[in-house]
C-alpha cells in the first residue's frame, strides 16, 4: 500500500502536512499534521486583558480581524460590558467585509488552480470565451478583445520561460476537466480578483487604519471616532467611500464569483459525492444586533440530519491531546474544557529532516477539540447548513437557487464540492447583508448618536478581582471561540479553540478522525505521484494553520512575569 | 505531464533561463504595460525611497536595464500577514510583481505546486541562481530543541533558512518576527524564536519590521537595489534609513496637538473626534522609527494614528515586551526635535519603559508646561 506525503500543502495559511494511504486508486486512510508552533497563549499570561486582541490578532494575518473580535467579545463577556450600537455595527461591517474578501481570495487564489488549468487557457478561442462569459453574467469585462489581451499576457509570461509561482504544478493532470475557454475565463478573473481584493479591503483601512492587522479594536467599543463635522473622524466622506466599496464587493460576488463557481462546479459534479467528512456541523452564529440577537443563527447538526438543529452548549466543548505533541496531566483519553485547559508542548515526533511521521503516536501541533465527544466540521458549509435547516430566509433562497442551477439535491452539500459551493453562498449572503449594517450605522449617526465606546470599565480598577468569559465569532473559516480568565487585572488563562483546530484536528482518544482526515478517505487518486485530488478536498476547508496551533499553560500556575528590559 | 504542456504552450522554464531573461523594461513592453504606467510606478517608488522627484527618470532608466530578478519567499513561524500585505501592494500591484517585475519562484501561499513538486521548484531555483536570487523571509525561526517547532517538507525551518539564505544575494526579513523574533520571541519565548540575523550567520540581511511590513517599503527596498546596485543604508537595527530614519512622532500629522498640549483623554471624547494627540492613550510614536505617517497603508488610505488608535511601536525590536502594555503612556518622551538617532532614542526608550513599571510617572524630559497630568491609577 502506497503512503503518500504532501508537505507543504501550499495555497493555505500556515504549515500543513498530509500523509495518506492509497489503495486501488483511492485514499483509504489519512493523517493531518500541523508542523509549526509558537505558543502565543502562553505568552499572553500575565498581560493586560485589554491588549489581548492585539496579540491574538497575530494568530493569523489572513483572517486578520477574527481573533481581535473574539478576544474583545471574551473580555467584554467576562467584565459584563455592553458596547454602544455603533461599535457593534462597525464590527459587523468589518466582519462582513473580511468574510467577503477572504472567500473571494480563497476561491480564486488558493482554490481555483485545483480545478483550473491555466496552461489549457492558452489554447482557448477568445471569441468563444467571450460568448461563454456573456452567457453566464453581464459583467462588463467580457469582450473577445479583453480575453485576447489576458491570453497574450499569459502567453508572453509563459514564453519568458520563467513561470514563477506557476512552475512545476500539476498542469495537464487528467483530473482537470474544464474546456480551454472556461480555463481562460477563470484565469482572467484570477487576475481581476487580485486587483479587486486590495480595493475592497480598504474598508478596513478606513475603519481601522490598515489591513492586514487593522488597529482599531477596543475592549468596550471601537477606536474610530464618529463625527460628521470633523475631518479626523468617520464622516460622510468616509461613509460614502465604504458604501462605494461595498457595492463594488457585491457586484463582483454577484456577477463574477457566483457565476464562475456555478460554471466550474457544473464540470465537476462527481465531486458532490466525494469528501463528505465527519457529517457533524457546528456554527456559533454572528452579526448581533443592538439586543444581541444574531442575524446568522447558531446551532449544531449531527449525522447530516437536517431535520434537527441542536442548541450549542459551550460546556460540551473539550480538547484532547492523545495524538498531539502536548501533555495533559488529566491523563490519557481525557479532554479538558477551554476554561480548565492544561497543556504543555512536548514534541515527540521524528527529528528533522524526516520522511514520515509516526501516525500511530502523536503527530501534530494541533489539538483535537470535540463537541460532546464528537468531531465537528466548522466553516461556511456548517454555517449554511445550520441556517438552511433553521429556516433562515435569505440562506434558504440562495441555497435553493444554487442547488437548482446545478440540478442537485441538498445531499450534494455534504461533499468537497458542497463545501466550495457553500463558501460562495456564504460570501453572497455577506455581500448582500453588510451594506444594510452600513445603512443602519448611517441612520444612527443621522440621529446624532456618535458613541463608539463604553468607557465605564476601561480603567481596570473598576474590574472585579476575578472574572471569566468567552467570546464567539463566525470567522470566514468557521466557529471561533476565545476563553479568558482574568485575575487581579491580568490574564490568568487564555484559550482559543479556532476553526482550523476543529477541522485539522488529528485523531482523538477514541481514534475518531478529524474532519480533514475523514473527508480524505475515499478520495480518488489518479496518480499517486501527483495527488491533485488531495489538494481539492483539503483546500475546500480553506485551512488556516497558524490559527489552529496554540498552547495553554496549566490553570493556576504561577503567572508568567512580564519581563521588562 | 506538466513539462510537456508548458513546452507546447511556447516555452520551457528549464531551458537556459539566463538567455531568456530580459530587462524589466522590455518585459513590461511585451506585456503591454504602457510607458506612462511604468513611469507612474517609478515616481511612486522614488517617493517611497524618500528620494526627490527628479530621481524618477533615473529609476526608470535603471529598471529598464536590469534583469527580472528571482525571488523566493520562505514562511517560518508566521501568521502570513506579510504575504497578505504583499497582496495589498499598490505600486506595483501583486499581479505586476508576479507577472512582470520579479520571478517569484517559491511562495507557499500563492504557488500552484505543492508537496515535493514545490520543494523541487525551490531546489532548482536556488541551484540555478546561486548567489543571485533574493530571499524574503516571513516569520521567526525557532532555535529551541533543534528547531522542531517549525518544519516544512520534513526539514526544520532553521535548516531551510541556512540553506536558502546562505545561497542568496541578500535576504530581506519582512515583518517584525523575521526581523527580531516578534511575537513568538515575547517573554517567555516558548520556542526560542529569533529573527533571521540571529538564526543564520554570515549572510546579508535587510530588516523590514512592522506588523505587518508595509508592502511599499518592501518593493522600494527591491527597487533600491535594482536602481543603485547595492542595498540601502541601514541603521543599527538593520532597517533601511529611507523607511525607518525618522521617528513617527516627528512626522506625525497630530504633532501640533502634542506641542499644544491637546490630548485625547477618553475614547470618543471631543479630542478624539477632532484628531488630538493620542499620547495619553498610550501612543508609542515618540519611541518608534517608521515611515507610517507619510507612506501610510492600503494605497495611502490611512495609518493607525489617523484612524484614532495609538501607535503600538510595532517596528521596534522586542516591542511586544518593551512597549507594552499598549494603552500605558510612555513615561519619558525625549525633548523636541529630530536630531537624535534611532539608537540613542531606542535605547533610552527601552530603559525608560522598563523603569516605568516600577516607578510611575517619571515624565521628566517633557517640558513642564506641556506635561500631561500624571495618572494616579495604574492603567
Question: What descriptive keywords fit this protein?
Answer:
heterodimer, A: 565 residues, three-stranded antiparallel sheet, 16 helices, globular, B: alpha/beta, Cytochrome-c3 Hydrogenase, Chain A, domain 2, five-stranded parallel sheet, two-stranded antiparallel ribbon, 19 helices
Describe it for me?
The complex is a heterodimer of chains A (565) and B (379). Residues 551-565 of chain A have low confidence and may be disordered. The relative contact order of chain A is 0.20. Chain A is an alpha+beta fold and 565 residues long. The longest helix of chain A has 32 residues, at 236-267. In chain A, the strands form seven sheets. A three-stranded antiparallel beta sheet of chain A has the order 1-2-3. A three-stranded antiparallel beta sheet of chain A has the order 14-15-16. Helix content of chain A is 39%, strand content 14%. Chain B contains 19 helices and nine strands. Chain B has helices spanning 2-8, 17-20, 24-30, 35-48, 56-65, 81-87, 94-101, 115-128, 157-166, 175-180, 196-199, 215-228, 241-244, 248-251, 255-259, 270-273, 292-295, 319-322, 342-358, and strands at residues 70-75, 103-107, 134-138, 141-142, 151-152, 155-156, 170-174, 193-194, 205-208. Chain B has 379 residues and is of the alpha/beta class. In chain B, the strands form three sheets. Chain B has a five-stranded parallel beta sheet, with helices on both faces. Chain B has a two-stranded antiparallel ribbon with strand order 4-8. In chain B, strands 5-6 form a two-stranded antiparallel ribbon. Chain B has two domains: 4-242, Rossmann fold, CATH 3.40.50; 246-379, Cytochrome-c3 Hydrogenase, Chain A, domain 2 (Irregular), CATH 4.10.480.10. In chain B, helix 4 crosses helix 5 (56-65).
Amino acid at each position: 500500500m502506497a503512503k503518500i506525503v504532501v508537505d507543504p500543502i501550499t495555497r493555505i495559511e500556515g504549515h500543513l502536512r498530509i500523509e495518506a494511504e492509497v489503495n486501488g486508486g483511492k485514499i483509504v486512510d489519512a493523517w493531518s499534521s500541523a508542523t509549526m508552533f509558537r505558543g502565543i497563549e502562553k505568552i499572553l499570561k500575565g498581560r493586560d486583558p485589554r491588549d489581548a486582541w492585539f496579540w491574538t490578532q497575530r494568530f493569523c494575518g489572513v483572517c486578520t480581524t477574527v481573533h481581535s473580535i473574539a478576544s474583545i467579545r471574551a473580555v467584554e463577556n467576562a467584565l459584563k460590558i455592553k458596547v454602544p450600537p455603533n461599535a457593534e455595527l462597525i464590527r459587523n461591517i468589518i466582519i462582513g467585509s473580511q468574510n467577503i474578501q477572504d472567500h473571494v481570495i480563497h476561491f480564486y487564489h488558493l482554490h481555483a488552480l485545483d480545478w483550473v488549468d491555466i496552461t489549457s487557457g492558452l489554447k482557448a478561442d477568445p471569441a468563444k470565451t467571450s460568448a461563454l462569459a456573456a452567457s453566464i453574467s453581464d459583467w462588463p469585462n467580457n469582450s473577445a478583445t479583453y480575453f485576447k489581451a489576458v491570453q497574450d499576457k499569459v502567453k508572453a509570461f509563459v514564453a519568458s520561460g520563467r513561470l514563477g509561482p506557476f512552475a512545476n504544478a500539476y498542469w495537464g493532470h487528467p483530473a482537470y476537466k474544464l474546456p480551454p475557454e472556461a480555463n481562460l475565463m477563470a484565469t482572467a478573473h484570477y487576475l481581476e480578483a487580485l486587483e479587486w481584493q486590495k480595493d475592497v479591503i480598504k474598508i478596513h483601512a478606513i475603519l481601522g487604519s490598515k489591513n492586514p492587522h487593522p488597529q482599531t479594536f477596543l475592549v468596550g467599543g471601537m477606536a474610530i471616532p464618529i463625527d460628521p463635522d470633523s475631518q479626523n473622524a468617520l464622516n460622510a466622506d468616509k461613509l460614502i467611500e465604504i458604501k462605494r466599496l461595498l457595492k463594488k464587493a457585491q457586484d463582483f460576488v454577484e456577477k463574477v464569483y457566483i457565476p464562475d463557481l456555478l460554471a466550474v462546479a457544473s464540470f465537476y459534479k462527481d465531486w458532490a459525492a466525494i469528501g463528505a467528512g465527519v457529517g457533524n456541523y457546528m456554527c456559533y452564529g454572528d452579526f448581533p444586533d443592538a439586543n444581541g440577537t444574531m442575524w446568522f443563527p447558531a446551532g449544531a447538526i449531527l449525522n447530516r440530519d437536517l431535520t434537527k438543529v441542536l442548541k450549542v452548549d459551550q460546556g460540551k466543548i473539550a480538547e484532547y491531546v492523545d495524538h498531539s505533541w502536548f501533555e495533559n496531566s488529566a491523563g490519557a483519553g481525557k479532554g479538558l474544557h477551554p476554561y480548565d485547559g492544561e497543556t504543555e508542548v512536548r514534541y515527540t515526533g521524528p527529528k528533522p529532516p524526516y520522511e514520515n511521521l509516526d501516525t500511530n503516536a502523536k503527530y501534530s501541533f494541533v489539538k483535537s477539540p470535540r463537541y460532546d465527544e464528537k468531531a465537528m466540521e466548522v466553516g461556511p458549509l456548517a454555517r449554511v447548513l445550520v441556517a438552511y435547516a433553521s429556516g433562515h430566509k435569505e440562506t434558504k433562497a440562495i441555497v435553493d437557487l444554487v442547488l437548482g442551477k446545478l440540478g442537485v439535491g441538498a445531499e450534494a452539500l455534504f461533499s468537497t464540492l458542497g463545501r466550495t459551493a457553500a463558501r460562495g453562498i456564504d460570501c453572497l449572503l455577506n455581500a448582500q447583508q453588510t451594506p444594510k449594517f452600513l445603512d443602519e450605522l448611517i441612520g444612527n449617526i443621522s440621529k446624532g448618536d456618535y458613541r463608539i465606546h463604553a468607557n465605564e470599565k476601561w480603567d481596570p480598577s473598576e474590574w472585579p478581582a476575578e472574572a471569566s468569559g468567552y467570546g464567539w465569532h463566525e470567522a470566514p473559516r468557521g466557529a471561533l471561540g476565545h476563553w479568558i480568565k482574568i485575575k487581579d487585572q491580568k490574564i490568568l488563562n487564555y484559550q482559543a479553540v479556532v476553526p482550523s483546530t476543529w477541522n485539522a484536528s488529528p485523531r482523538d482518544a477514541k481514534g475518531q478522525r478529524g474532519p480533514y482526515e475523514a473527508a480524505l478517505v475515499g478520495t480518488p487518486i489518479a496518480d499517486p505521484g501527483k495527488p491533485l485530488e488531495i489538494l481539492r478536498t483539503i483546500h475546500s476547508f480553506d485551512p488556516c494553520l497558524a490559527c489552529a496551533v496554540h498552547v495553554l499553560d496549566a490553570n493556576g500556575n504561577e503567572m508568567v512575569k512580564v519581563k521588562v528590559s | 505531464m506538466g513539462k510537456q504542456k508548458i513546452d507546447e504552450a511556447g516555452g520551457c522554464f528549464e531551458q537556459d533561463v539566463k538567455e531568456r531573461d530580459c530587462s524589466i523594461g522590455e518585459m513590461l513592453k511585451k506585456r503591454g504595460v504602457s510607458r506612462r504606467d511604468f513611469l507612474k510606478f517609478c515616481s511612486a517608488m522614488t517617493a517611497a525611497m524618500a528620494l526627490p522627484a527628479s530621481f524618477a527618470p533615473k529609476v526608470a532608466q535603471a529598471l529598464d536595464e536590469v534583469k527580472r530578478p528571482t525571488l523566493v519567499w520562505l514562511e517560518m513561524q508566521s501568521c502570513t500577514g506579510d504575504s497578505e500585505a504583499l497582496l495589498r501592494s499598490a505600486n506595483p500591484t501583486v499581479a505586476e510583481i508576479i507577472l512582470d517585475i520579479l520571478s517569484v519562484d517559491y511562495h507557499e501561499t500563492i504557488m500552484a505546486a505543492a508537496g515535493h513538486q514545490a520543494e523541487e521548484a525551490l531546489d532548482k531555483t536556488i541551484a540555478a541562481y546561486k548567489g543571485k536570487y533574493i530571499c524574503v523571509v516571513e516569520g521567526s525561526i525557532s532555535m529551541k530543541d533543534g528547531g522542531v517547532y517549525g518544519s516544512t517538507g520534513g526539514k526544520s525551518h532553521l535548516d531551510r533558512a541556512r540553506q536558502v539564505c546562505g545561497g542568496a544575494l541578500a535576504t530581506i526579513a519582512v515583518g517584525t518576527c523575521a526581523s527580531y523574533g516578534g511575537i513568538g520571541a515575547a517573554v517567555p519565548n516558548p520556542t526560542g524564536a529569533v529573527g533571521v540575523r540571529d538564526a543564520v550567520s554570515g549572510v546579508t540581511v535587510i530588516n523590514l519590521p512592522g506588523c505587518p511590513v508595509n508592502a511599499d517599503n518592501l518593493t522600494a527596498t527591491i527597487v533600491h537595489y535594482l536602481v543603485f546596485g547595492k542595498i540601502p543604508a541601514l541603521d543599527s537595527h538593520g532597517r533601511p534609513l529611507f523607511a525607518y530614519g525618522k521617528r513617527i512622532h516627528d512626522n506625525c500629522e497630530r504633532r501640533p496637538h502634542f506641542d499644544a498640549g491637546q490630548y485625547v483623554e477618553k475614547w470618543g471624547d471631543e479630542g478624539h473626534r477632532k484628531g488630538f494627540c493620542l499620547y495619553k492613550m498610550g501612543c508609542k510614536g515618540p519611541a518608534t522609527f517608521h515611515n507610517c505617517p507619510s507612506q501610510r497603508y492600503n494605497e495611502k488610505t490611512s495609518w493607525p494614528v489617523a484612524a484614532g488608535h495609538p501607535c503600538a511601536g510595532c517596528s521596534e525590536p522586542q516591542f511586544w515586551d518593551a512597549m507594552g502594555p499598549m494603552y500605558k503612556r510612555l513615561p519619558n518622551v525625549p525633548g523636541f526635535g529630530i536630531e537624535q538617532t534611532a539608537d540613542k532614542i531606542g535605547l533610552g526608550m527601552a530603559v525608560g519603559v522598563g523603569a516605568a513599571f516600577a516607578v510611575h510617572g517619571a515624565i521628566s524630559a517633557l517640558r513642564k508646561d506641556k506635561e500631561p497630568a500624571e495618572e494616579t491609577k495604574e492603567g
